[in-house]
Amino acid sequence: MTRLPDLFAALADPTRFAIVERLLAEGEQSAGELADIADITAPAISRHLKVLREAGVVTQRIDGQRRIYAVTPEPLQAISAWAIAHRDFWEGSLDRLEAAIRNRRKESR
Amino acid sequence: MTRLPDLFAALADPTRFAIVERLLAEGEQSAGELADIADITAPAISRHLKVLREAGVVTQRIDGQRRIYAVTPEPLQAISAWAIAHRDFWEGSLDRLEAAIRNRRKESR
DNA sequence: CTGTTAATTAACGCAAATGTTAATTACATG
DNA sequence: CATGTAATTAACATTTGCGTTAATTAACAG
């Protein structure tokens, strides 16, 4: 089981976070398709994907000469579990949490 | 509102994560009380607290010559909201895993 | 076999993060 | 007011992270 700080480190970079969001929103994609996620070169993307892979955030599937990436469920589960484990701490504002979720959905359309 | 990658960056360091866990478990504590959280000097702790403060993860309260720190609810809320917003993804992870395996079998024929 | 495409690895430069010791600020107390 | 305690800021060294270009590996197409 990956430790949370390592998971957070993987998601702390804006480019990597964008990759994860994209994969979550649109499903699995090849390294090439992810190229336009940020204004950086292909090797840079490749290294970000490696970091995500080593943190267990994404899995790699080989299809011909393409490497196809998808988000792994476990890390998201782990993060959710951690936040919810401390729910008694921030439970005072469930309304705001709900609002935040609604907001996210709205933005992603 | 703080962006998630910045939040994750604040929590990516093991010492900072330990500070947050401690404050969540035992409630607010002074910088001095947090000194034993890791085998580093007081200035190092102080800088970690500054990072957490600037990311909005903790608040600082002044009491005499002590600075007392406590976790802010909003960041945990935000993280939880993000994870839960993608719950449909990792909730049925077993089904998806199965489907992915079936899919791969189909393709390789 | 040859050339093209997809992606990664190698080698390198630079900026940011993290630790140290020393100096500073602010409050408390005899 | 002089001294001690709590914490931070300053200055500096070292490591890590992230980007680049060039080289490499692997699969595909003629």
UniProtKB/TrEMBL annotation, chains A, B:
Keywords: DNA-binding, Transcription, Transcription regulation. CDD domains: HTH_ARSR (cd00090). This is Metalloregulator ArsR/SmtB family transcription factor. PROSITE patterns: HTH_ARSR_2 (PS50987). Residues 1-91 form the HTH arsR-type domain. InterPro entries: ArsR-like_HTH, HTH_ArsR_DNA-bd_dom, HTH_MetalResp_TranReg, WH-like_DNA-bd_sf, WH_DNA-bd_sf. The keyword Coiled coil does not apply. It holds the Pfam family HTH_20. It comes from Albidovulum salinarum.
